[in-house]
Design a protein that fits this description.
Layout lengths: L2 H40 L6 H18 L3 E13 L3 H4 L2 H7 L13 E14 L5 E4 L1 H4 L4 E5 L5 E3 L1 E6 L4 E5 L9 E2 L10 E6 L7 E12 L10 E4 L11 E3 L4 E9 L10 E5 H14 L5 E2 L2 E4 L3 H6 L8 E6 L4 H5 L6 E5 L2 E2 L3 H9 L6 E8 L2 E8 L1 E2 L2 H6 L14 E5 L2 H7 L8 E6 L4 H5 L6 E5 L2 E2 L3 H9 L7 E7 L2 E7 L4
Parallel strand pairs: 8-13
Antiparallel strand pairs: 1-2, 1-4, 2-3, 3-7, 4-5, 6-7, 9-10, 9-12, 10-11, 11-14, 12-13, 13-14, 15-22, 16-17, 17-18, 18-19, 18-20, 20-21, 23-24, 24-25, 25-26, 25-27, 27-28
Length: 500
């Protein structure tokens, strides 16, 4: 062998020996680490494990108490949908070859077709003899209601009463000795308290989620007319509507109603009607079949810092009286425009929505004491509340005005700054915004839609719901009406009802 080859071979063996040494060293080191890790794994150390287990068991105990009181509600209702084939039947040539809807042609049923629609929601048992509270939108328009208890027994449900303005409904099933939930005083809730939501999200019954109270007294959201929502981050999804929001004692603090979502699913913000409002509405519906609300007879608005300064109020809390209705309890008691109502029966009035909810929930005929700032001085005013008149209630939004006219089924509200911002309306625009149009109504067939802003009725300008209600109430049955509407950045004219 040549010397060069011997030298090369020696270097190769040296490299092999170094490699083996490195591998062996890593193996020993790794083994030592593994032994250390193994030793640690054999000796777990979790601080406060007993406390955590106790907390977990407590949550399970709350769920065990609540779940039997929460039911699944499935509804079936008949809805109308425009027949996509209808325009083709207007063509005489096609009618000649294929026949029209009334001649056995495709599509059938004329311009509109009827079909059954099913939906799911939740409810809460509030009495042993079968009364259940849920959301109005869960059972609204339902032809059939099926209630499934936690033990999977099915019952036929009957609507006792419903209130669209608070989105609360009461249904009844024929059963006895049911596991009724206990009520809590929702006025004592504080942000940060832990709560549990129970219901049937996506039809998955007996589901619970955990979270906290994110805020209380949420209003001006645009979900209902009377808003005093509890905001929570406990996961609420489609199907949870009407389910229970409970405290850590398993007591009902609210009825889950809506979620804020850009995708249709849970995004960390849910809203529940507080139990005190639910109970007040429920008791009224069971007793009278309707909701009897207290009435003061004023239009109020929130205070800005500038307004507070002008009216001599140190803070922006309170409700500024902008109008006093003739013949109302407020007028009889001497309230005046420009008064700032800062307290009701000794409780601070936070804003206009808070005052409205407090008055609505008070007993008709009861006397309330108002603390009022007038000309920068505090005075006391005693008012005997009346019952909210139906015409006033309708004009305030959330109800269809003119139920005997071609505008029957049209629900409107005033243009608030929030609504104007969402619709992209110019500052100073006057009119009323369409919140809902009943399917199959004359307005629906004419094309009126949610989000349209009605600025005139029969060439008479409309500035608010009061003027709209007055104009519509004068319409005769089946009398056609001409509307001027602002839609998607421009004005259009629309005729509702036949002029023949």
């Amino acid at each position: 062998m040549y010397p060069v080859e011997k030298k090369r071979l020696a270097w190769m063996w040296a490299a092999v020996l170094v490699f083996i040494g490195v591998v062996a060293g890593l193996a020993v080191s790794s083994r030592m680490d593994l032994m250390k890790l193994g030793d640690a794994a054999d000796k777990p150390s979790i601080k406060n494990s007993a406390t955590l287990n106790q907390f977990s068991e407590g949550l399970a105990d709350v769920a065990a108490v609540v779940i039997p009181s929460v039911v699944n509600i499935s509804t079936t209702k008949t809805v109308k949908q425009e027949n996509p084939m209808y325009p083709f039947f207007e063509d005489p040539l096609l009618r000649r070859f294929f026949g029209g809807p009334d001649q056995g042609g495709g599509g059938g049923g004329g311009r509109y077709q009827e079909f059954k629609e099913q939906s799911l929601g939740s409810g809460v048992i509030v009495s042993k003899d079968g009364y259940i509270v849920t959301n109005n939108h869960v059972v609204e328009g339902a032809d059939e209601i099926k209630v499934t208890l936690s033990d999977k027994k099915d019952y036929k449900g009957k609507v006792v009463g419903a209130d669209s303005r608070s989105d609360v409904a009461v249904i009844k099933i024929e059963a006895k000795n049911l596991p009724a939930i206990s009520w809590a005083d929702s006025s004592k809730l504080r942000p940060g308290e832990m709560v549990m939501a129970a219901g049937s999200p996506f039809g998955l019954s007996r589901t619970v989620t955990i979270g906290i109270i994110s805020a209380v007294g949420r209003a001006n959201i645009g979900i209902t007319d009377y808003e005093d929502f509890i905001q929570t981050d406990a996961a609420i999804n489609p199907g949870n509507s009407g389910g229970a929001l409970v405290n850590m004692n398993g007591e009902l603090v609210g009825i889950n109603t809506a979620i804020f979502s850009r995708s249709g699913g849970y995004q960390g913000i849910g809203f529940a009607v507080p139990s005190n409002m639910v109970k007040q509405v429920m008791d009224s519906l069971i007793k009278t079949g309707k909701v009897v609300r207290g009435w003061l007879g004023v239009s109020v608005q929130d205070l800005t810092p500038q307004l507070a300064k002008q009216f001599g109020v140190s803070e922006t809390g309170g409700a500024l009286v902008s109008e006093v209705m003739k013949g109302s309890p407020a007028e009889k008691a001497g309230l005046k425009p420009g008064d700032v109502i800062v307290a009701l029966d000794g409780r601070q009035v936070e804003d206009a929505g808070h005052l409205r909810n407090s008055v609505a929930g008070a007993t008709v005929g009861s006397k309330i004491k108002l603390d009022v700032m007038r000309n920068k001085k505090k005075i006391e005013v005693d008012v005997v509340l009346g019952e909210l008149p139906k015409k006033v209630e309708a004009a305030a939004g959330g109800e269809a005005v003119g139920t005997e006219s071609v505008l029957a089924g049209v629900t409107v509200e005033d243009l608030t700054p929030d609504i104007m911002d969402k619709l992209g309306l110019e500052k100073g625009m006057k009119g009323v915004v369409v919140m809902a149009v009943e399917q199959g109504s004359a307005a629906d067939e004419a094309g009126l839609a949610r989000g349209d802003v009605i600025t005139s009725v029969n060439n008479t300008p409309v500035r608010d719901t009061g003027e709209y209600g007055q104009l519509v109430s004068k319409l005769k049955k089946d009398e056609p009406v001409l509307l001027r509407i602002f839609r998607q950045g421009g004005y259009i004219w629309m005729t509702i009802g036949s002029a023949d």
